[in-house]
Amino acid sequence: MSVSEMNGKKILTTPITNEDLENINIGDIVYLNGHIVTCRDVAHRRLIEEKRELPVDLNGGAIFHAGPIVRDLGDNKFEMVAVGPTTSMRMERFEKEFIEETGVKLIVGKGGMGQRTMEGCQEFGAVHAVFPGGCAVLAATEVEEIEAAHWRDLGMPETLWVCRVKEFGPLIISIDTHGKNLFEQNKVIFNERKDKAIEEISKQVSFIK
User: Fold this and answer.
1) Where do the Fe-S hydro-lyase tartrate dehydratase beta-type catalytic domain residues begin and end (predicted)?
2) Does residue 129 lie in a domain region?
3) Would 42 be classed as within a structural domain?
């Protein structure tokens, strides 16, 4: 099974299937076992704009919008020092096509993503999740090993670091496979509350000209 319950936690394990994501909904908190690959702006551009094949198979896999701090131990050995999420919206214009071309199933980052990513998640069976900001050192402790490093010519933040992880999270599902987007739904709720608050405040200060 690629999705299971362990100590009250919902665990996704790579490789992830469409069936694993059927009962995952926005607002759910999940954790990841298996592998996750740091993958951000330049890697997305190389695949989508430059049509370069990725050096790692992401089918059924997970990516992390992150620019980590990594210690080089020599002999192709590395230690994860800190790995905090990068703003996911920076990848919005690439993500739908990225999902289609790679078969990635879990995208992790900071903040929400937009309409095209939501369409990609629904059409091709993927989810986006938010890793809490300010927890880069915690995230590093959940990386058991960096197993490979690809495209190191891009520099440390943009390198594709292939990480074996255990109970990586918490990951808050923000886009699910059912066409729902937590951030967009919250915007509607917040705007409704804002409008009511403005109306009430306006009544109380109506004497001000």
Assistant:
1) 12-185
2) yes
3) yes
From first to last of its 209 residues, what are the pLDDT tens digits of the chain?
466 776 678 999 999 999 999 999 999 999 999 999 999 999 999 999 999 999 999 999 999 999 999 999 999 999 999 999 999 999 999 999 999 999 999 999 999 999 999 999 999 999 999 999 889 999 999 999 999 999 999 999 999 999 999 999 999 999 999 999 997 776 566 656 667 777 777 767 666 65
Q: What's the pTM value of the predicted model, to 2 decimals?
A: 0.88
- Catalytic choice (44, 65, 128, 150): 44
Query: Does a structural domain hold residue 7?
Result: yes
44 catalytic, yes or no?
yes
Bridge partners of residue 148, in order along the sequence: 162
Closest CA to 164 of 17, 40, 76, 61: 61
